[in-house]
Amino acid sequence: MTIDGKTKGNNRKMTCITCPTGCQLEVRGGADGELEITGFQCRRGEEYARNEVLNPKRVLTTTVKVRNGVLPLLPVRTAKAIPKGLLERSMDTLADLEIQAPVRTGDVILANLLDTGIDVIASRDMEKVSNVG
Ligand code: SF4
Fold first, then answer.
1. Which atom of ligand 1 is nearest to 39's Cα?
2. DSSP result, 21-35
3. How many helical (H) and strand (E) elements, i.e. helices and strands, does the chain have?
4. Ligand 1 near 46 CB (within 6 A)
5. Tens digits of pLDDT across the chain (133 residues)
6. Which CATH superfamily, name and number, covers 61-131?
7. Domain coordinates of the chain in residue numbers?
8. Which value, to the nearest 10 degrees, does the dihedral of the CA atoms of residues 43, 49, 50, 56 take?
9. Which residue is closest in CA terms to ligand 1's atom 1?
């Protein structure tokens, strides 16, 4: 597995965020083009560093507009991390979305975001405005 062009020839340091231990990881491009990863205490850290270099992903958190809700915006997030390169397009897609209250935590707000196979889900309940008071 080769290190990408942007990072090639450079050491890259990062903190593993997979657990609270926060190991300091270092990734180097080996002479043979393979990644050399050090500083991890477990396999999850090694995997984290490899993914950060080769295929970085993030859980997207944002808000979408709500019609008839007690609040105008609903916090949402992707059910899993999506490729970092899709974050901007995902934000654009969700900016155009308006959903209808009521909503329950975990409800699918948008299925299969940008064909990733990953859903956008509600991060909280949202009652209809007529249910209040
Ligand atoms: S390398 Fe393992 S022990 Fe260290 S922070 Fe990552 S998950 Fe935790």
1. 1
2. T--EEEEEE-TTSBE
3. 2, 10
4. no
5. 444 444 445 689 999 999 999 999 999 986 677 899 999 999 999 999 999 999 899 999 999 999 999 999 999 999 999 999 999 999 999 999 999 999 999 999 999 999 999 999 999 999 999 754 4
6. CPE0013-like (3.10.530.10)
7. 12-55, 61-131
8. 130
9. 45
